[in-house]
Amino acid sequence: MSHSASNPQGAVTEERLFDDRYHFWGGFYRFVWGMAALLALMLILMAYFLT
């Protein structure tokens, strides 16, 4: 019984690696900016309602 280490989706090329990283960082930055906007909105609402 042997185990093959081949990738089922084909060879990993430089372009594909770049696309994967680009997609990951795009999603990460979208998440960070969304959380920052939500936090800012919550702080503004807290300042408004607590004063």
Q: Short summary of the structure?
A:
This protein has 51 residues and is mainly alpha-helical. The chain is built from one helix and no strands.
SSE inventory with pairings:
Layout: H1 14-49
Descriptive tags:
51 residues; mainly alpha; 1 helix
Structure description:
- The protein is mainly alpha-helical.
- Helices cover 71% and strands 0% of the residues.
- It has one helix and no strands.
- The N and C termini lie far apart (71 Å).
- The mean pLDDT is 88.
Q: Number of helix segments?
A: 1
Shape, principal axes of CA atoms: rod-shaped
Radius of gyration: 21 Å
Spans of at least 5 consecutive residues with low confidence: none
Largest sheet: none
C-alpha termini separation: 71 Å
Query: From N to C, what is the helix and strand string?
Result: H
Helix content: over 70%
Q: Helices and strands: which structural class?
A: mainly alpha
Overall mean pLDDT stands at 88
Classify the beta-strand content into a percent band. under 5%
Number of strands: 0
